[in-house]
Design goal:
Layout: H1 5-15, H2 18-39, H3 42-58, H4 60-88, H5 98-105, H6 123-128, H7 144-159, E1 163-168, H8 173-182, E2 201-208, E3 211-213, H9 219-234, E4 238-239, E5 250-252
Antiparallel strand pairs: 1-2, 2-3, 2-5, 4-5
Bound molecules: zinc ion.
Protein name: M15 family peptidase
GO molecular function: peptidase activity
InterPro entries: Peptidase_M15C, Zn_M74/Hedgehog-like
């Protein structure tokens, strides 16, 4: 009986058990996977490459056009992706804690009532911070996002038993220049070199027994600063306590394209 090859295969397959069929399928699969490796032995690979390069050499223009057509959409996509990534890029950290998320994105937090001016010219305050009497403590002069984050940090501190107070928020370029003249112990930044000028930085201290506490030598204050740094970072702010020249009461919100930072 002469059977066509395909029909012979079908007939044989019907006779086999399922495990035999599975074994045969596996053998075919392995053979199929190994075949390209056999075909591409070093000498054959060399021959294939020589043929391809010879083909490309003979059709220079066609090759150029084809490769351009293949690469161009990819480059175009990358260019657009790059642009949108820069524009929409927000490098501020996101809070993952549900309490902080609610504070940050819930209703607008209300700033604490302003303290009388004499609080900021006491001997204790003057010993640590000069020229605070003329500093701005207007919450509305701060960037809205920064304000909400700072108030979130304040609220977290209240829950830890600390009452915060704003020493200085927005700082005009003129005032920044004046402070820079006082020396490096006051500030290293000249006009427009500080986040204070963009309403994106603030200096805070603590209220204890009706007095502003700034001292960094007081162990109670040191612990308070450590906790404040923790709360500020939870709210997505950068804390000056981590800097080489520590500025324990300072926090800022980094934003794209401000002070040359992306
Ligand atoms: Zn500051």
């Amino acid at each position: 009986m002469v059977l066509h090859a395909g029909r012979r295969q079908q007939w044989r397959d019907r006779m086999l058990s399922s495990s035999q069929k599975a074994r045969i399928r596996l053998q075919r699969y392995v053979k199929f996977m190994v075949m390209p490796l056999q075909v591409l032995s070093p000498s054959r690979l060399h021959a294939v490459l020589a043929t391809v390069s010879d083909f490309l050499r003979r059709r220079k223009i066609a090759t150029l056009i084809t490769s351009t057509l293949l690469v161009f959409p990819f480059l175009l996509t990358m260019a657009f992706l790059g642009e949108s990534r820069l524009e929409g890029f927000d490098d501020t950290p996101r809070a993952s804690d549900p309490v902080i998320t609610t504070l940050l994105h819930g209703e607008q937090l209300v700033p604490p009532p302003p303290l009388p001016p004499e609080y900021f010219v006491s001997r204790e305050v003057e010993a640590h911070r000069q020229e605070l009497g003329s500093a701005s403590r207007e919450w509305l002069k701060l960037d809205a996002d920064f304000r909400q984050r700072l108030l979130t940090a304040y609220e977290l501190m209240v829950r830890r038993g600390y009452q915060m107070t704003l020493l200085e928020g927005y700082r005009s370029p003129e005032r920044q220049a004046l402070l820079a003249k006082l020396g490096a112990h006051v500030t290293n930044a000249g006009a427009y070199q500080s986040y204070h000028q963009y309403g994106l930085a603030a200096d805070s201290a603590f209220l204890r027994d009706g007095k502003i506490i700034i001292s960094e030598k007081d162990p109670w204050a040191m612990e308070a600063y450590r906790q404040f740094g923790e709360c500020a970072e939870l709210a997505g702010l950068v804390w000056g306590g981590r800097w080489r020249m520590m500025d324990l009461g300072h926090v800022e919100l980094r934003k794209s394209n401000i002070l040359g930072r992306r």
